[in-house]
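Lab meeting, item 3. Inverse folding demo.
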């Protein structure tokens, strides 16, 4: 059984390796840091917790934001979570957590009062609307990564129930013309190869 420090060290190495292939993110972070646009903002990152996501969290932190991270138990890489926690970020993610524990972690994550939420599947945005109305009243906005997450948010908007602006990331051409075609396709092929 590995220790927290061993997992955090392994996660930090994997995060650094992934970060070497993310020069655009580093450039954007440097520009945001120089402009001060994120200084003092609290940003909640609620995406699949893997080394790429950790690099995004670090980039936001380095640009001046206070960053908290949430991820469900079935999408959390524990080494990555431990590396982020060891670096001082507030992490609300446990690999293998059941639905009840995930709900506890999600509520604790929202209790950090983020100004902006980056969501994957709209579960956090919907939870905020159901259980954190004061937070929703103060949120600057959110971003939703997926088609499956945008659908319920569009339904909420149609019902006049969506109280914050949300950027539908999936509507960006670089997302649906590149990632959805090549990234998702590659993931499907790699999963098939892993399974077989």
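The presenter then showed the designed sequence:
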């Amino acid at each position: 059984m590995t220790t927290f420090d061993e997992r955090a060290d392994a996660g930090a190495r994997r995060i650094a390796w992934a970060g070497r292939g993310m020069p655009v993110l580093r450039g954007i972070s440097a520009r945001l840091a120089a402009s001060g646009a994120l200084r003092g903002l609290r940003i909640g990152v609620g995406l699949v917790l893997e080394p790429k996501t950790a690099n995004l969290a670090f980039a936001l932190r380095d640009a001046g934001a206070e960053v908290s991270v949430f991820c469900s138990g079935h999408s959390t890489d524990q080494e990555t979570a431990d590396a982020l926690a060891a670096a001082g970020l507030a992490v609300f993610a446990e690999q293998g957590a059941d639905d009840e524990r995930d709900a506890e972690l999600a509520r604790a994550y929202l209790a950090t009062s983020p100004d902006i939420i980056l969501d994957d599947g709209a579960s956090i945005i919907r939870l905020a609307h159901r259980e954190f109305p004061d937070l929703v009243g103060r949120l600057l906005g959110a971003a939703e990564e997926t088609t499956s997450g945008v659908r319920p948010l569009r339904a909420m908007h149609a019902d006049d129930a969506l109280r914050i602006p949300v950027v539908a990331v999936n509507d960006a051409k670089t997302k649906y013309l590149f990632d959805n075609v090549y990234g998702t396709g590659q993931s499907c092929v790699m999963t098939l190869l892993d399974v077989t």
